[in-house]
Amino acid sequence: MGGGDLPKGVNLRDAVRCAIEDSSFSVVILSREFASSQFRLDELVQIKEQHAAGTHACLPVFFHISPDDDCATLVVDSGSGGCFHDCFNRYKTQFTYRRVHAWIQAIAWLAGISGWVLTAGRSAI
Length: 125
Known about the structure:
Layout: H1 12-22, E1 25-30, H2 38-52, E2 57-63, H3 73-76, H4 84-94, H5 97-111, E3 116-119, E4 122-124
Parallel strand pairs: 1-2, 2-3
Antiparallel strand pairs: 3-4
Helix pairs in contact: 1-2, 2-5
């Protein structure tokens, strides 16, 4: 079994949570579809919490999203394109205010970190 293999039956969510806890660095790729996964949003909250504790660094990659635009705006602006707005409107009815607010704060936090911007055939740091 290689270093990245998981034995059958291991809960992927728990394995990823442990991997984030055991690491000191994460690369987060934020795209317009990022918010479609509560799993990814939970991971981002965990990364943000570990960063706040001083135990984790994060490099965001903005894939067809500009960090100059407040990424949190993508959550509330239905004209932004992408699925942030629709996803978060749905989440507000499915999850607690505290959990949804943590996700929104984590996206805003990520937008404030200097990272890579990848757009149609171009990249910039």
